[in-house]
Amino acid sequence: MTNAAMVQGIDRCTPLKRYLLLGTIEARQWVLTGVILVSSLLNAVYFFRVIENAYLEPRQGDEHEQHEGERGREEAPFGMLVPTLIMAAAILAVGLSSGKIVTGVLESAVPMAFK
Asked: Are 63 and 56 in contact (CB under 8 A)?
């Protein structure tokens, strides 16, 4: 696989991982490239398991298998949903405005560089 083909596949990664991968490819450190890719895969699998356990129905054969006639997981009470939704909205807002936040922090930390 050529470096150009690898870079095209890397474009879908998060920015920090992209820079790490590009650096390891440029330095021809294939072991480190493999470690970064494997850790990314493990992170995705572990994170999906959290989402699966939190929001999806249990799989057949789980130790908490439901008996016939029982209902599935019940919806969380309203008092628990509101903080979760507020936190999700706050995370999205911070994520979407992260450029402004970082610029503000950098301008206050290094004021001479931005004049």
From this structure: no
Question: The tokens of 48 are what?
Answer: 């999906």
Total domains, the chain: 2
**pTM for this prediction:** 0.41
Residue 86 lies in a domain: yes
Instruction: Map 9-65 to HEC letters.
Output: HHCCCCHHHHHHHHHHHHCCCHHHHHHHHHHHHHHHHHHHHHHHHHHCCCCCCCCCC
pLDDT per residue over 33-81, tens digit each? 999 999 988 988 888 888 887 777 665 665 555 555 555 567 778 888 8
Phi/psi at 29 (5° precision)? -95, 80
Q: Give the domain extent around 11.
A: 1-57
Judge if 10 and 38 occupy the same domain: yes
